Here is the input.
Amino acid sequence: MDPSGGCPHAANARLLARGAVAPVVLPGEMEGMAVLGHDALREFLAHPDVAKDARHFTALREGRIPRGWPLMTFATVRGMTTADGEDHRRLRSLVSRAFTARRVEELRPRIEQLTISLLDDLDHAAASGGGVADLRRHFALPLPMGVISELLGVEDRYRDRLHHLSNQVVATDIGPQQAVAANRELVAVLGEIAAAKAERPGDDLTSALIAARDEEGDRLGEQELIGTLVLMIIAGHETTLNLITNAVRALCAHRDQLELVRKGEAGWGDVVEETLRWDAPVSYFPFRYPVRDLTVDGIVIPKGTPVLAGYSAAGRDPAVHGADADRFDVTRPRRTDAVRHLSLGYGAHFCLGAPLARLEAGVALERLFTRFPGLELAVPENELSRHSSFVGNSVRSLPVRPRP
Here is the structure.
């Protein structure tokens, strides 16, 4: 895996041509595997002999993972993404009520209000920037960060720092000292937020999690509390940030598809789903571990191997999505089994925030292209700088001309 990231699709196509499962070399010359094919990944994600708990990670258990390994947080953070069975159900139940379809729909007026305000900010940034503004910085980032921060009760003064630290945590080209420092600071900042909420509880999810921690029986340990906040902050804004950014890039490059939406021949929800499939916001997500030697699509994945879920590859798997899998098509029919893509996961660990991400992206895109129907990229697509990570899949900035 290339620690510096880059566009994954050409490499994904080469790997898929060889098979649905591939051996990979992770940072630090660590051997791993990646599941790339749609059907193979779907099977793997829901397999009962596949675990998330890092106690099943053979190299980590044997002490062969150095301190400061850039992917360490993905393996060791205490929370839903590294829990199995009853522990996973317990942790998930503590936050799931905040993300039901009904509760998310109740957020729509606030999301629309925040979107309108951010479009004003984007317009002002362009006016002072010679007609060009960074859509990622002024719109795609503050929308999901604002929503998740309000849900968690995180004050404005923390948000830029939390985004910066989140970026470092998901980077795969970061050095050991930087990785350790970023993780330590992220835990410290979230610990400060949690301490303030413990002293002055509010009507927010962090306060509710602290109340659960303090209940008799200790439903949520201190490390689990901080781990859950880490997960909520990173997953709660990074994924949607990439989704909105990638959707805008796709529509600017495929004006015919934008025109189909304007004519009513497709909806904004179709744009969101096709973007998730065609340019998944998370390319390769760490980690899962077989608890025994496991055969997937004819390939043996040894027990305890760290396995990446290849969402970006599965989204363009021609065996499932057809010979035109690499074509962006908002009218692409859904599969008969109702699984259009796996970019938000599958099985017990399906993304808890999926309804919120879909709502935020749909509202953002509709309002953006209604306000600025002539919006276009200010630089060619091939000149956009990519994320320095094979986990997150997007660009660092998105200069646009928001023309009315």
